[in-house]
Amino acid sequence: MKFYLKLFFPIIVIFLVGCTQDLLEEYDNKPNSEDTLESSNPVYFTNIIGAEVLFMNNTSEPSKAGKEILNLQASWLLQNHDYLIVIEGHTDEKGTRDYNLSLGAKRASAIRDFFILNGVEESRITIVTYGKERPESVCSSNECYSKNRRTITVLKKQ
Fold first, then answer.
1. Strand ranges inside the chain, DSSP E
2. Contacts 24+ apart (CB under 8 A), 37-46
3. What pTM was computed for the model?
């Protein structure tokens, strides 16, 4: 029995040290609390703030969480004037093609109007609707449909 302990103990120690090193590297690559909205990196906008806003079924009113994301997006856009934005409107697959294209346009317009009301120059904003043509998920359940009811704010350098 002691022989097995002597044999496996170094292997276990090496394994634990390796795992700990991976966790430390992963932690070091995450943004810290010192990161602020002043970061002009578009990756910050997309990955930290979030480019996607979700909606309820058959509405152009953003969800509560979506409104919080929009406030952060607007703040970032006000601090980073060298970016244009394209707001993509999307819907789930329920409904006709024409209805969904119209609803996607209403969602994108609602986001554009929100940005304008919060000080983002209208000349920086373009909207496009995809309706149900570019789903995030292809599915047939309400939980899955909700992922497709969204707008995406895409940054473009001027």
1. 52-54, 83-90, 125-131, 150-157
2. 37/72, 37/75, 37/76, 37/79, 38/79, 40/79, 40/80, 40/82, 42/83, 42/155, 42/157, 44/76, 45/73, 45/76, 45/80, 45/153, 45/155, 46/155
3. 0.73
Q: Express each pLDDT in 27-74 by its tens digit.
A: 444 444 444 545 889 999 999 999 999 999 899 999 999 999 999 999
Q: Please, which residues bridge with residue 150 across strands? A: 54, 90
Determine if residue 135 is left, alpha or beta; phi over 0 gives left, psi from -120 to 50 gives alpha, anything else beta: beta
CA separation for the pair 61, 122 (Å, rounded): 20
Tally of CA atoms within 13 A in the half-sphere of 59 that contains its CB = 9
Give residue for tokens 């359940």: 141
Retrieve residue 46's tokens: 């997309």
Unique residue bearing structure tokens 């554009």: 112
